[in-house]
């Protein structure tokens, strides 16, 4: 039997298949801020000289 057009339903838990630790948001936020600060310093310090 051809089931090419059969609908597949997967619940949210099975679709994610992994954990979402809350600490990851903090790591991403702090990394973004650190990258912005480093890039700003690289641009501002030579401009002052």
Description:
Keywords: Membrane, Transmembrane, Transmembrane helix. The chain crosses the membrane at residues 26-45. This protein has 49 residues and is mainly alpha-helical. The protein has a domain at 21-48. The protein contains 2 helices and no strands. It is elongated.
How many E-type strands?
0
Please provide the ordered H/E string of secondary-structure elements.
HH
Average pLDDT taken over every residue: 85
What gyration radius follows from the Cα positions, in whole Å? 23 Å
Bulk shape: elongated
Concise summary:
With 49 residues, the protein is mostly helical. Helices cover 63% and strands 0% of the residues.
Properties at a glance:
about 50 residues, mainly alpha
Helices and strands in order, then pairings?
Blueprint: H1 12-16, H2 23-48
Keywords: Membrane, Transmembrane, Transmembrane helix
Transmembrane segments: 26-45
């Amino acid at each position: 039997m051809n089931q090419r057009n059969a609908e597949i339903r997967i619940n949210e838990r099975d679709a994610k298949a992994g954990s979402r630790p809350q600490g990851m948001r903090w790591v991403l936020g702090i990394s973004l801020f650190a990258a912005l600060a480093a890039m700003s310093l690289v641009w501002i310090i030579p401009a002052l000289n």
